[in-house]
Write a structure and sequence with these properties.
HIT family, subunit A, alpha+beta, about 350 residues, binds zinc ion, 2 domains
Length: about 350
């Protein structure tokens, strides 16, 4: 396959958040990015000095929740030692002119995903992953119920130092905050606008398109074929109730999103039996990613409907999802300065490589 014939160079607009666009430039000369380091994974089950390993429970802040119990825990939630948000402080925020601030009230907690130190997500049992996501869901609900000022609970995982993980033991984090973060706010706003115009959820429309779309796009001047879109081209994995999609305009080259096939806006409302299918789709997707870009540092995060006034009307227009963002290259000044991310692999090509893996 020569670069000149099959290279793509186009700016793709993210249909959910149009301001988050990506420059897909696959020609050989268009590689402005340095490769991000891959992690040499030491699959140690137990590390004596690790504060998250069993036997060292006294080295972390107190346990908030242990599953199934403190004695035989497999998943443990603890307070973050260095919280980015915390309890109310007495000094009220001083607002002056253009310097408006909201008190940094909130919660910041760590979820120790597994009692096995070095286990990767794709190596965990489906039943364990199901329990993990049910634990996320349970804690999310408790936090929303605990204080009505908490408008958003963000759950995310950092894997690798470049992705922000400072402790090697597998863990994720929960941050409950009094504001709706910008990325979610943008998705909420655009999907609401789409809904008002088309009476349909844009995420549902995207899933339908991923499952059924077939088209050939010709160049208007030369009449040559510019791109062929095949059925299921962007589908990485399909479960009974969940689908993993490679977005057409994703910022990260190997980014994959997992969404419920049936419309659902709030992750809190997902049923236990659905979580089993979700766990299977996640495990298989992570296995595919590990085959193709093994050892890559990554983040994943859950986007779900905010609580409170910001999104009181968006149950029909918003659709919860998990975004998995592998960090295979370092963003450049061009990307940070312009906000336009460069993808040197076409999403179609990345999807094809991920689909070619046999995850069983
Ligand atoms: Zn450990
Ligand atoms: Zn939907
Ligand atoms: Zn999202």
């Amino acid at each position: 396959m020569s670069d000149t014939e099959d290279s793509v160079r186009e700016i793709r607009i993210n249909p959910i958040v149009p301001s988050e666009s990506v420059l897909v430039a696959t020609a050989r000369g268009m590689r402005p990015r340095d490769a991000e380091e891959r992690i040499e994974r030491k699959a140690e089950a137990h590390v004596e000095k690790c504060p998250f390993c069993t036997g060292n429970e006294d080295k972390t802040p107190p346990t908030i929740l242990a599953v199934p119990d403190e004695q035989h825990w497999q998943i443990r939630i603890v307070e973050n030692l260095y919280p980015v948000l915390g309890d109310d402080r007495n000094a009220a925020g001083i607002n002056f002119g253009l310097q408006q601030a909201i008190e940094g009230y909130g919660r910041h907690e760590v979820i120790i995903d597994h009692n096995n130190h070095g286990i990767a997500i794709h190596e965990m049992e489906v039943a364990h992953l199901q329990t993990l996501f049910q634990t996320y869901r349970g804690r999310m609900k408790q936090l929303y119920d605990s204080d009505e000022r908490l408008h958003y609970v963000l759950i995310f995982k950092n894997f690798g130092a470049a992705a922000g993980a400072s402790i090697k033991h597998t863990h994720s984090q929960i941050i409950a905050m009094p504001v709706v973060p910008e990325n979610v706010y943008n998705e909420i706003t655009h999907s609401r606008n789409y809904y008002l115009k088309h009476h349909q959820c844009i995420f549902c429309a995207m899933i339908d398109e991923a499952l059924t779309f077939e088209a050939t796009i010709y160049d208007r001047n030369s009449g040559e074929i510019r791109r062929r879109i095949d059925v299921g081209q962007y589908v990485i994995e399909r479960g009974e109730k969940f689908i993993a999609i490679k977005p057409f305009a994703s910022r990260y080259e190997w980014e994959v999103h997992i969404l419920p096939l049936q419309h659902q806006s709030d992750f809190i409302n997902s049923a236990d039996e659905d979580m089993e299918d979700f766990a299977r789709v996640l495990k298989r997707t992570m296995k595919r990613l590990d085959h193709v870009i093994g050892g890559a540092q990554y983040n994943f995060f859950l986007h779900s409907q905010p609580h409170g006034t910001a999104c009181a009307d968006c149950a029909p227009s918003y659709h919860w999802h998990l975004e998995i963002c592998p960090r295979t290259s370092i963003p450049t000044g061009f990307e940070l300065g312009s906000g336009l991310f460069v993808s040197t692999i076409s999403p179609e090509d990345a999807a094809a490589q991920l689909r070619a893996v046999e995850p069983d």
